[in-house]
Amino acid sequence: MSGDRLNKARGGASSREETTEIGHPRGDLALILVGMPLLGLLLGLALPRLARWASGSPVLPWRDGIEFIGGLDAPWQTALVMAAGLVAGLLLAFTALAESMKVRLSDARVTVEQEGRTRTFERADVSAVFLDGKHLVLLGADSGELARGENGARAAALAGAFRAHGYPWRDADPHASLFRRWIPGTPDLPAEVHALLAARKAALKRDAGRDARDLVETVRGLGFVVRDEGKEQHWRPLAGA
């Protein structure tokens, strides 16, 4: 399917159900695992020269650091800078893959691996699956989010895999029209939810993604769904809430 990594396997004696693993297309994997380290290596090679060029500017922030890098012109120094760029590229590549949401499907259940956490949801508990921008989203029976994250596979491959296993794939969020922009103090929300959304706004400003996601789950426990549109938080009640 469009070159995406869709692997099928049979379970053991206790489970003969067919599973499909959905991940990055092979081309994207090659770009991440080879392209990022190579880019880091080339940047390390060019960085001293760029620093020497930039040091001639009369208005230069961090002048001391840039002049220091520009002075690294010995072969062994250039090799060290290139090695540092290569290591940085490898770290970025593995970080990108680690943060990607891995999905394993069968007709009976879907397993999501994300940020070192593995969760399994029964097919009957999944009410909708769709893409929200680059994020794959699974909704539960109460219309709350079961999982959200970037998977890496193309939209057509995701749709085909979920539909093949009988999941309710949607072209868009079926509850999108119910979302409203969060306005602090609006009487439509309990004070406790306002406090949680204010805390989440602060977490987003300091790039504390895990804290922000934990707060979303807490808000869900109070009967509401949260999602971001640009830099604004939007909310809606759970179905039946």
Descriptive key words:
6 helices; Signal recognition particle alu RNA binding heterodimer, srp9/1; 3 domains; five-stranded antiparallel β-sheet; 241 residues; three-stranded antiparallel β-sheet; 25% strand; alpha+beta
Tell me about this structure:
With 241 residues, this protein is an alpha+beta fold. The chain folds into three domains: 26-99; 101-174, Signal recognition particle alu RNA binding heterodimer, srp9/1, CATH 3.30.720; 176-237, no CATH class. 41% of the residues lie in helices and 25% in strands. It has helices at residues 26-54, 63-70, 75-99, 155-164, 191-205, 209-221; strands spanning 5-10, 18-23, 102-105, 109-114, 117-122, 126-132, 135-140, 145-150, 180-181, 224-229, 232-237. The strands form three sheets. The chain has a five-stranded antiparallel β-sheet with strand order 1-2-3-4-5, covered by helices on one side. Strands 6-7-8 form a three-stranded antiparallel β-sheet, covered by helices on one side. Strand 10 and strand 11 form a beta hairpin. The protein is flat. The two termini are 39 Å apart.
